[in-house]
Amino acid sequence: MPESSEQIERKRFVPRPAQAEVLAYRGGKMGVSAVPGSGKTATLSYLAASLVANADLADDQEVLIVTLVKSAVGNFATSMRNYLQGEFDLLPYLGYRVRTLHGLANDIVHERPGLVGLSDAFTVLDERASDDILDEAVETWTRTNPDAADAFLNGEHFANQYTRNHHWPDTVKSVASAFIKQAKDMQITHDEAIERIQKHPQNLPLASICTTLYEQYERGLRYRGAVDFQDLIRLALRILQRDADYLARLRRRFPYILEDEAQDSSKLQEEILRLLAGEGGNWVRVGDPNQAIYETFTTANPRYLRDFMDEIDVKALALPNSGRNTQSIISLANALIDWSLRHPNAAIRSKQPLTEPHIEPTPAGDPQGNPPDDAQAVYLMGEKYTGDQEREAVIQSLKQWLPENGHRTCAVLLPINSSGAKMVQRLRAENIPYVENLRSTSGTRAIVGSLTRVLGYLEDPTNSQLLADVYRVWRRDDRGDEDAERSINNVAKVLRGVKTVEDYLYPRKSDWLEDTVEDDETMIAHLGQFRAMIQRWQAAVDLPIDQLVLTVGGDLFRLDTDIATAYSVALHLRRFHELHPEARMPEFTEELREIAKGNRNFNGMSDSEDTFDPDKHKGEVTVTTMHKAKGLEWDRVYIMSANNYIFPSDDPFDSFMSEKWFVRDGLNLEAEALAQLAALKEGSDYVPGQATKAARVEYAAERLRLLYVAITRARRELVITWNSGRNGDQIEARPAAYLRGWWAQQQEAES
Amino acid sequence: MRLLKDQQRVASGYFDTTIYLDGIAGTGKTTAAIERVKELIRSGVPADSILIWVPQANLAMPYRRALQRARIDADTNVPTTTIGKLAYEMTDLFWPLISDDEKFNFGDKFGRPNFLSLELVQYYMTKFLGPEIELRDYFNSVHISRNRLYTQIVDNLNKAALVRFEPDKIGDRLKDALGDSVEQSYIYDDAQETASLFRQRCLEHNLLDFSLQVELFVNHLWPLEQVQNYLTRKYRHLIVDNVEEDTPASHDILRDWLPQTDSALLISDTGGGYRRFLGADPINAETLCDQCQVHITLDNHRVMSKELVALHDQLDFSLDPSKTDEPQSDADARDAIAYAPDINYQPQMIAWAAEHIASLVHDQGVPASEIVIMAPYMPDALRFSLQRELDAQQVPHRSHRPSRALREETASRTLLTLARLAHPHWNLPPNKFDVGYALAASINELDLIRARLLADVLYRNGKLAPFTGIKNDALTQRITFDLGMRYQVLFDWLQAYQAQDPLPLDIFFSKLFGEVLSQKGFGFHGQTDAANIAANLIDSAQAFRQTVSEIEPNLDIPTEYVKMVEEGVIANQYLRDWEDDQRDAVLIAPAYTFLLTNQPVDYQFWLNVGSSGWAQRLYQPLTHPYVLSRQWQSGRRWTENEEDEAHRQTLAYMALGLIRRCRKQIYLGFSQYSEQGYEQRGDLLMAIQTMLRRLNRSDAHA
After folding, report:
1. pTM for this model (two decimals)
2. Which range is least confidently modeled, A294-308, B9-23, B76-90?
3. How far apart are CA B133 and CA B136, in angstroms?
4. Nearest to A462 among B384, B452, B618 (CB)
5. Which residues in chain B touch residue A223, judged by CB atoms under 8 angstroms apart?
6. What is the 3-state secondary structure (H, E, C) of B488-532?
7. Dist CA A568 CA A547 (whole Å)
């Protein structure tokens, strides 16, 4: 018998007309193009809940909801529960399943591992661990092939040993990594790649290098009984293709598939869902092709979603209304769409970087209507700044704005993490309150930081300073309250003063707690509990490292995303230990410090846009990258570095990140390697240099979408600035310059 | 317990014929069989002419214990056996009959055989196959750790022996049923080639692994008249329990043996067959029924309460799509279970379980041994957290996880670290952290902080220094004189040891354990778990030394052994810790392990009910328990239908088997999120939900 039941807050959803049209869905294929701020997540989860309620599902059937990132799973799950209980009076948890595409692939592979050469205990390596394997392979390869660089370095760097020893191996690694990912996406195994290289009439040196590394890399995975993220998708698809009966079973299990962020799906991912939905199946894809910003060197392409919407049996709808931005900001974003449609560069134009529909404001009377318009709140700065000057200008602007807008939210959007770090430094120096949302989010860093402190103490258990740090970690939830804060500081101070930690933790002759803290009952209670906790962790110190982290994490964290992040840390350290069996506590702690510093590409559960809530940071400056800002919104947004390096238009004077300064003929080696791979796959000719040119166009198109995403983050106020780059030779990005001119004209016309 | 009429028939009748006894778990079959053994002895049958035959050694425990307690007049114990034990004994005894047979081509036709334990098989797999796999690029599309790869090759060989098909047909059988793609076929070809290669190397070195022992016994020795005469004359009365968990090799022998006995009792647990992945064949077992003169079925359930019977029937209905009539019960299935629906995370679930257990033990006087906590998997963190929670609630507990690598056990790591310290000539000085942990584990009451102080001060350049050498008084006081002196005892012992010629590793472990660690004041004193693991390590090191030194006299045995343990090649395969542990303590174990002990309890706690692990059959890319069974018809394909049926069956066997072994109540521990932060929606949870919805609906109709 149940012992108690959960009370869930009731939440009502009032759809806009365009949303109501989507919600009228009863079956078949449907594609929904949703503009930024159109409430697509709410609409999709409401649709899912109403299908659970009305579609007459059997006990073993579920509506499948597929999302892009892990934490979106949590958001969907929460709103589904609320709708099911609040609006449909149904039991929560039943009749649906929310998964990321990788999670779904993982489920499928776990149900039928034997079909694809895996045992039930296979592990999935995260990027860091698979990176390590590739690192090893590259290191060995560059050592044994010292002359391989000759064919790729330009005259200026040919004899430069530093380039050969450092830049070259890094480049080989990133080229090989892109090649392997793409090959897996194309379902080409290393054996097949070797075979095709032998058969191909041309000499394809990059493909040969990458294939050798591919083989080594696969050997490394095999030896560890592991697969990587790409494998997961590839293998899931293979299982579905191989086992028609299993596929039929899954089709019955998931009679409806709802997919979010469909613009970022790769061909393989789309193929998995297409197979699951089946001919004439029920499949709803929601996305915004204009927000596809993860395409470079992947097989994801917004074209797939557009093509899907053009299919004959697909009902195509739009969610064009956004209540997020002011009319001025909406107009600016729409102007960018219009400009891209007549982009001065024909090659880019043909890629259709941005397409209609335009964003429309909400209809009159909408409960979540647009903020009141203020044309004065759009600042498109034409000044040519240096990097420092640009930061300074933004700092000055923030200093003016923040004191009067403590109730509002604000973000500075930058192109890459490292420029974010510089901005953070300046904010800190100026004592401006800020929050970072960079490579790993503050949430992940806080979790990793807490675990680092605990492991750091377990590494050096006699150190009272570290023990005091752990005490702060232990009481992290109490922070924020002034009294509690004072008490934490007091106790931590007392703990720091313990000279012989063993007399507190394991008293034999004398008990430090009894002897020192005589009267303060609260402190005795706190310290008594804390002692029990530390003793427990010290008893666990001999467990395998992942199990130790899970034990500590289980005691420290209560939020699902925090626990899951701790789990990711545990897995990360277990793999680290598998790769470095000699590692002990100091090495584990060091590895965690690297994660906390952001030096590892570590994806915890908190690492995504949806868990970061800007509204929890009113009166502070959020510093984040444009990529990480996707899905979020602030009252005021600064877009920095809007120059032709960040947003190129394939002009002759543009320079590109992927074209390394030491590589001959300005080649983009990643693009060239992928072109060689494509030539292998198709059996076609490879023309050197062509891929480098094509990559410029692709990149320019994607960057336009990035600018569009950045602009639509602003609710009320927008500031765009640019700088002349490291060498002072960058100019204002074409689209930014166009918008500035267009905006001035509008203002003039209105006045 | 008084026997019911049918049990009495089994216990005291039919001493001159053969009986096939079946019934679901908890109907008192083994109880009746034990009484029969006693009655046989009382009637004058010599105890050593009765043979108790079980599929797995620990299943003979109830017999051994009951017979010890009975104190019946018997000058010898009643022997117990398994197919493996018989194969070993007979091959050993009758070795000369086959050693020079040309068809085996043993490397040394006049030499003795070397019997390999499972861990030594693993070791020789590493030796024989490791280089070949590298060289020939075997299994290049299989992502699996080396140790598991070897386990599956062993598994295939064992299945061939136990199911009785030619070991060179492994690959073909798998390919016929499963080799849809070229890639898949390659995997099975590689599985065949490596198995054959291993077999060939074993023959060359007179190495007899389990599969070869069984094959030699069942196919070559048993058909010989002198062997059959030896066995059938020696054992005149057979008691064969859990025949459904045994393999076709056993069944075939029994089929020949039955007509030659004075009496035999074959016992089958209806609905059993849990060891399928080890070759168990309940369908084949049933064919033995026709060979017996008398068939008795026990159907009076003596374990489950009526609420549990209702739960059993309701869940059975939920899990079996072929059943159309809803079961009618005179009790409410919902009264047999307790659960908390609003638990989000594992720590809450663990605390919930521990609180309820504490209340059962302390408030309601339930003996701790009448409670078991299970989960489909029992990883360290879950086990550790449960243990700590139960400690906090002052509830005694014990745990069992079979087949763990020895390197994962603290006690064995401690012994290995001390061994490294005692043998500086190995040039394997331990890490300072390991020394600290080893000291903390070796010396009773020595906490991690003081252990760390000791290691910091006294461990330099791979060597320990004496406690008496510490000049800093403050430090001596911090460590305390008392603990320092215990350290000194350990130090002196290690010093004295180093002054002599090094002993074989197992003897070193044994001395260290006996002379220091198990003594009062030291870490293994009174610690049953640690003592068991030490004993396992000693046995394992001894077996390794005796066998390997015979085959490779020039090998540096101790360092090789240490390396193998640390690489996880050597696993803890001994059953000792399980068998002897009779403490009044809550058992913490994976669900399968509990099921295989075949001992009912009053209360069961099922944790992680939402996990998909409850329904998962074992997946192994190189082998397949169903396709390699005798029931598999050649030429048949393994399809999705079979797979789905296997899933359903696994869950049904597991869940219903557990319920049949519960007397009073089942607590369902559900945490919405797994330790990975994923929502849990496994088939067991769905089946329970379906059942509850059905019962609620019928309430509403009523």
Report:
1. 0.72
2. A294-308
3. 5
4. B452
5. 145-146
6. HHHHHHHHHHHHCCCCCHHHHHHHHHHHHHCCCCECCCCCHHHHH
7. 12
Compute the Cα dihedral for A124, A130, A136, A140 and give only its sign. positive
| Model pLDDT, residue A610 | 43
Residue linked to tokens 């675990």: A451
**The CATH number of domain B5-79+235-297 is 3.40.50.300:** yes
Per-residue pLDDT for A520 more than 70? yes
| Residues of chain B found within 8 Å of residue A561, distances taken between Cβ atoms | 677
- CA dist., res. A277 & res. A254, Å (int): 8
Q: B312 and B657 in contact (C-beta within 8 Å)?
A: no
In degrees, rounded to 5, the angle at the alpha carbon of residue B537 between the alpha carbons of residues B531 and B538 is 90
Q: How many residues in total does chain B contain?
A: 702
pLDDT average, residue stretch B520-533: 85
Query: Does the bond joining A357 to the residue before it have cis omega, within 30 degrees of 0?
Result: yes
d(C-alpha A711, C-alpha A729), whole Å: 25
Position B457: which residue type?
A: V
CA B13 distance to own-chain centroid = 35
Digit-coded pLDDT (tens) for A105-131: 988 988 888 778 777 767 777 666 777
The string of pLDDT tens digits covering residues B540-599 is: 899 889 888 888 888 899 999 998 888 777 665 554 444 555 678 999 999 988 888 778
**Which residues make Cβ contacts (< 8 Å) with residue A565, sequence separation at least 6?**
A443, A444, A447, A448, A557, A604, A605, A606, A607, B677
Distance CA B438, CA B422 (A): 13
Closest partner CB to A77 (pick from B339, B483, B679): B679
- Considering A59-73, A456-470, A617-631, B131-145, the range whose residues carry the highest mean pLDDT is A456-470
List the single residue in A with minimal CA-CA distance to B483.
A508
Chain A residues touching B339 at Cβ < 8 A? 1-3
Contact list in A for residue B183 (CB cut-off 8 A) is 117
Torsion angle (degrees, nearest 10) of CA A630, A631, A633, A637: 10
> Do the Cβ atoms of B673 and A245 come within 8 Å?
no
Nearest-CA residue of chain A relative to B411?
A542
At A603-626, the pLDDT tens digits run 544 333 345 778 888 999 999 989
Task: Compute the distance between CA of residue A103 and CA of residue A68 in angstroms, rounded to an integer.
Answer: 10
Residue of B nearest to A107 (CA): B612
Residue A4: per-residue pLDDT: 41
Cβ of A461 within 8 Å of Cβ of B449? The answer is yes
Mean of the per-residue pLDDT values of chain A: 86
CB B231 within 8 A of CB B257: yes
Shortest Cα–Cα distance, B386 to chain A (Å): 11
Whether residue A615 contacts residue A409, with contact meaning beta carbons closer than 8 Å, is answered with yes
> What mean pLDDT is predicted for residues B677-681?
67
A403 three-class SS: helix
Q: How far apart are the CA of B77 and the nearest CA of chain A, in angstroms?
A: 42
Spatial CA neighbour of B199 closest among B189, B213, B185:
B213
Domain B306-404+580-701 has CATH 3.30.230.10: no
